Amino acid sequence: MAIRISGVILPPNKHIRIALRSIYGIGNHRAVAICHKVGVEPSVKVVDLKDEHTTLLQEAVNQYEVEGDLRRRVAMDIKRLGDIKCYRGLRHKRGLPVRGQRTRTNARTRKGRKRQSQMIMKPQSTETKS
Fold first, then answer.
1. Do 70 and 58 lie in a common domain?
2. Quick one: 50 and 82 in the same domain?
3. Is residue 42 one of the residues assigned to a domain?
4. Would you say the pTM of this structure is higher than 0.90?
5. Has residue 124 been placed in a domain?
6. What pLDDT sits at residue 118?
7. What is the total count of domains within the chain?
8. HEC states along the chain?
């Protein structure tokens, strides 16, 4: 049986502490904390969970800001930075590294694929001066 928490179907063959990390906003530390709060062993597989544990997990996850709400808040924070035209907002808009990394080399993830600059060559005249 597939378990759905916050609109995300958890992978059934993984441990619950790993499966909870597939929800946006839940990392390793928070997943283990949720397991201890609910009283579930973190190494239990998702298919082996009982129904009462599933409902407790859903309630515990709903206490945090996850998935759509968190994505919306992050997007609004970035938009606010761009609206006030601060340095970080401008870097976000231009698609460049935001936190002070160098861009002369590296930064390919943010800048995208390297494009060759087209060199403009002067046409050579075939006439010879005499």
1. no
2. no
3. yes
4. no
5. no
6. 64
7. 2
8. CCCEECCEECCCCCEHHHHHHHCCCCCHHHHHHHHHHHCCCCCCEHHHCCHHHHHHHHHHHHCCCCHHHHHHHHHHHHHHHHHCCCHHHHHHHHCCCCCCCCCCCCCHHHHCCCCCCCCCCCCCCCCCCC
